[in-house]
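so my prof wants the structure for this chain in the tokens format not the other one, which i didnt know existed until like an hour ago. anyway here's the sequence
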Amino acid sequence: MKIHPQRFARFLAVCIAILVLLYALFHLPGGEDGDPPTYKAEVLSVTETENEIKEFAPGSLQYEVQLRIDSGSAEGTEATITHRTLNNPAFDIHPQEGDNIIVRDENDTYAIVDYDRLPAMLFLLLGFAALLILFGGMTGLKALLVLLFAVLLIAKGLIAFILFAPSHILLWTILIGAVITLATQLIVNGRNVKSAGAIIGTIGGILVAGLLAVLAIHFTYLTGVSEEQAGMLKALYLKDVDFRELLFSGIVLGALGAVMDVAVSIASAQYEMKLLAPKTKFQTLVSSGLNVGRDVMGTMANTLVLAYIGGALPLILLISAQPDISLLHIMNLNMIATEVVRSLIGSIGLLCAIPITAYATAFLITIRPQRKKREQLHENT
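here's what i got, hopefully its the right format
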């Protein structure tokens, strides 16, 4: 089999970039700014013991846990600790023999922080990457690289910008969204009119969604503090941050993937149509793009709405378990209104991206051949 040096070099560069992104994404420091360091550990044995606080915390349990430290300077050492639960399913950890856990160093002993979920998540990621490359080849490899880049850009870029200058969250969100869009289209599809049309349609749809988000958050009096995590963040760390702007950021980023998907589907269909029928006119290309958009928008809108419903399922069950609450009260709850606004704005941004992409791509595809013809005529004369 003949090996092409350029293709091999490109493949090797993409693989190295993926490894670097994976390292940056999953390399978790042991602790910073005076925080107690955390380590990986394995549970060797667990014994339930007499609970000393049971009368103060009904339903709580107490365990004697023998564990082995698997990372850090104390790697390989064993320790026996006392671990208690407080009958709170959201935070209780019931260790069993063979479990991989995360422990925190507390002077002469350790405390169980959480389960070590990273190996299972990494296994899923590797499976996803393998299937993506298996079915997509080099395009799948590029898509994986772009996906990791987007996650890393949000985790290390957007968050850092927000912490550095919290008064410009709207600007940082639009900037990061535009960079992700450009990187996705240029790396996966290359520099061509198809990518240009998809970029214009995506950014246009996101700008529409962003404008609507600002208006909707203002006129529906949303606070942005509709979840426990946001409330804790507001109280402890980001007291001066406008959480309505954080809500805006979440709405835009949540819609970005679906809008990009619709835009590239339309642009690709128009591009292929022009390749197969070079004499296709502008209006015909626009009509074709709009037809593709109509076929795609139903499933994409469902994707957005169902994704938000899935995320809010515990909240829906909580409300449904209280039949005496009026529908008027339910629909005006900040939590419910936030999810409704989030899903509707994402869907509207998606719908607006369809005509923007169809007209932009058709224009770019038809104007390029005309420009070449004019240049050839000018040269001949």
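also thought this was worth mentioning. The two ends are 50 Å apart (CA to CA).
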